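Dear colleague,

Following up on Tuesday's group meeting, I ran the structure prediction for the two-component complex that the binding team flagged. I've pasted the input sequences exactly as they went in, so you can double-check that nothing got truncated or mislabelled along the way. The structure tokens for the whole assembly follow below. Feel free to forward this to whoever is handling the docking comparison.

Inputs:
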Amino acid sequence: MGRIETTLRKIFDIPRKHFAPGGRLEKMGPLFEAIEDVFFFPAEATRHRPLVRDSLDLKRFMSFVLVALIPPLLFGIYNTGYHTRLASGLSTDFLTAAGTGLMIVLPVIIVSYAVGLFWELVFAAVRKHPISEGFLVTGLLFPLTLPPTIPLWQVAVGISFGVVIGKEVFGGTGRNIFNPALTARAFIFFAYPAQMSGDGVWVAVRQNAANAADAVTGATPLALTTLQAPFNHIQEMLASKGYTLATLAVGNYPGTIGGTSAICAAVGALILIAAGIASYRIILGCIAGLLATGFLLNLLAAPQAMPWFSVNPVYHLAAGGFAFGAAYMATDPVTAPGTERAKWIYGFLIGALTVLVRVVNPAFPEGVMLAILFMNMFAPLLEYSEIRLRIKKRIPHV
Amino acid sequence: MHPKLELPINRFKVAGLPDHRIENAPAPGEVAAMPERIPLLKARLRVDTGDRVKIGTPLYEDKKNTDIVFASPAGGRVMDIRYGPRRVIREIIIQTEKAEEHEDFGAPPGTELSRMTRSRLVQMLLNAGMWPFIRDIVYRGVADPAETPAGIWVAMDNLDPFHPPPDIYLSTPADLRQFKTGLQALGIFCEHTYVSKSAKSAELDAEIEKRVTHRVRGDFPAEDPGVVHFHNKSTARENRGWFIRGQDVVLLGEFLETGRFPTRRTVAVSGADIESRYVSTRIGAPLHTLVSGFIEPDKYRWVTGGLFRGSSGSIESYLGLYETALFLITESGKRELFGFMRPGANKPTCSRAFLSIFNPRPLPVDADMHGSKRACVNCGNCTRVCPVDILPQFTYKCIRAGEIEEALSHGLLDCVECGLCAYVCPSKIELCHTFQETKHAYFRERI
């Protein structure tokens, strides 16, 4: 270890002068600093009171989100590969499926990180501030919400929009109103609907596979509403298409790269809550809002209403990207309210809106993205209202 | 009445708790008064280099209220007066004489205390330089003698790591007697004298225990007089209060019994590489006299007054008027390889992001920021630890946006400057420093 450390130290010390103010590569200073900080933790001394500081810093804070993203990422790689090989009529054993998945998913992630980092660097150099760790999360969250067939140039356009318009125009990390990863996804969703929705985008069928099965339908479970299930029989209809509750929870069906598995998202959520990184109030609020609204719509279900009115609310919990959104997107501290009661309301309304969009609006089979973006907009209002309430309770100094 | 206050702050396990014994420090050849360490004070000198002073001779006064004078903690010759930036008076150094003389402040009132009027007592304390021991609970500077506070809070404990507990500074019968005399005197200032004591500190003599009005559970800063006051006030009239530290009550009693300015201090001395113990010394003692054994002095930050509220100095510094703690911590200065992804079984933290949450042992602390400055991500850690229900992240943003009125309505003046918000901030924002500066600026503008 000692030798590795000395070597690494040298690697950073030799070119340092070029990146320092006045050096040839001064503009690249933030990048140099960001990379060095990953290897060598900064050891700055305290100057003001208190003279001791907690060991937790933003880098570790954000790394926990990356750790929590490992289960959906790994499952997503396997799932993507599995369905690709299934649809292409190839063998679907674990290793080859994972390999195929990696070949599809890795380029998407690399493009997302590379293009996003480029924009981060441009803004860091112009504004002369360090690169924020929040980007590491955005750069991974965004690809996991995309269909595996997404063209790479669209990934690049999406992450550019997310980083620049979703974050940097507001002043950078900490000042953005909308979650940058979801902003990026929303942009792609509305700008290139052909590649982001419909039945054909969820499985990356290998065109050159001669014996590709034509019978494979790519419709996601939530998109099955168009099939007009008979009243009170939506669960049977879903099951007949292979979408039992267990399948939906495990996530072994075609869908976005990382967003299909509710169980993986739940594991991630548990990691985040255990480490104290994500707010359990938001996550529980989301679940409560989803179940309550789902149940309420059950009461309103009638033969002439849309089929999803009558589905057991638990199906909403397991299906689609809700679990992923609630665990990783809704809990983004920057765009969520910072006060505790407001977090409950914020979460609850995300859950409620998700169900409403899914059930009532047939144009959008999936609702969690819009629900979170919508509530992002209202987070400051919720926050403001709670602050007013708290101020009222204080004994003022006159 | 024994109200209990509980705060959910109990994840500090700082290594270096002093052994439960008192040692005598060697008598110092020089002691210092440090006007810079008195919050909000603009000092004006009353002596010059070369002057001879007695114990209790006024060394400097408050420019805004020249009745408030600060007494010399030693008898001898003023050896040097050192200034900091903008001519702030940093240290007035006095070379002590073998037989130190005392200033005479008239016959001690002793047993006549019960018949003493408020104005006479105030005058007496002001003359003798005893007044500065009584402090304002909002701004934490010296109390304004013209004001009538809603209550005086006696804080028997100071849990900022590490301070002498009451059973250490009240170890002799004389201490106990003087403490009671001091309490009696405080009763003359206003109707309510509250005495708060940590539930953790050892049981004292029954008569003192009877005087305790508030018992506080929880770690620093649950025991802070500002925090206890905040959780007990119910009207805006009660906002203004005074406080005094338990050890200063003993000094007050000693003054009333002897008629002389008291100089003794019991100080907690802690650190990883030194013998951590309590030391009996005097006000203004040079720090090097408190540490025994051989150490490399430049390796350390010599922090006086607690890790959270204290200020840092070097081996050449002295104890301030209010300071009863010395903690030697290091600046690691070493950039740890892959520091942010280590499991961290030994890293002190209030979060749950390190393995140290399973480590029950006290952990060593250092003077590192443990990260670099970032933008606020609204994580709310500061809100969770704030002992006076402020939302530090929003209050901070109000201040940065120039909305001081808004910050005040958020409760800025309730801030007790404990430093917990800045301690837990993962973005390493100087919350406490900003609040303190803003409070001070507001204080100056208000007048």
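Residues 208-217 of chain A have pLDDT under 50 and may be disordered.

Cheers,
M.
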